[in-house]
Amino acid sequence: MSDNPATFVRAYARLAPVAAVPEVRLYQADEPIGLWELTEGEFRSEQPPPFWAFAWAGGQALARYVLDHPETVAGRRVLDLASGSGLVAVAAARAGATAVRAVDVDPMALAAVAVNAEANGVTVDGTLGDVLDGDAGDAQVVLAGDVFYSQAMANRMLRFLLRATRAGARVLVGDPERAYLPRERFRRLAGYNIPVPPALESVRVKHSAVWELISATPGAGAGGGAGPAG
Length: 230
Hints:
Blueprint lengths: L4 H8 L1 E4 L7 E4 L3 H12 L13 H12 L8 E5 L5 H8 L4 E6 L2 H13 L5 E4 L12 E5 L5 H16 L3 E6 L10 E10 L2 H4 L3 E9 L17
Parallel strand pairs: 3-4, 3-6, 4-5, 6-7
Antiparallel strand pairs: 1-2, 7-9, 8-9
């Protein structure tokens, strides 16, 4: 296996259109279990599973929404949390975002974000690390796909996203009906039937929705603090 993460991404994943977002091409694994075992064998417990090698349903829904509604991000600074493959970040860049920052705890994910951005002719800045105890910086729009997959993650993520709305950012989430999404905190914007590999979700189609976090501060979020960059 190559020591260069970008070389590894290109060698073990195939560049192909995303099922629900065919405008975007990503390096995707054809067979999840083999790649899971390969990365585990190379990096052992220090390496997260290769979430970057798949276009997850919530991310596809969020990317589809952003491309269908480019005014959501056009002219704005965007933060993509737990970016994985970079699908949502690439969609935001294609939709006209002024700047896009993709954050992930996995260095392989950042390599995937870089090669996927290059493959789609857009620019995405990558940040390695766990930012959930901090804030969203100068982001005017915060996007997060498939982040409510456990109770612990959901609690940390919600606190971060609420801080972002208080700072004036608009927050959109893509979620494939995971149990830990606190729906009472969100309003539903759209729903999609997303084709997915059965090996990942045990079904061939996963209904996924895009949700907007209800602003924690009157006047913030969609109306107040998410205007075009000045």
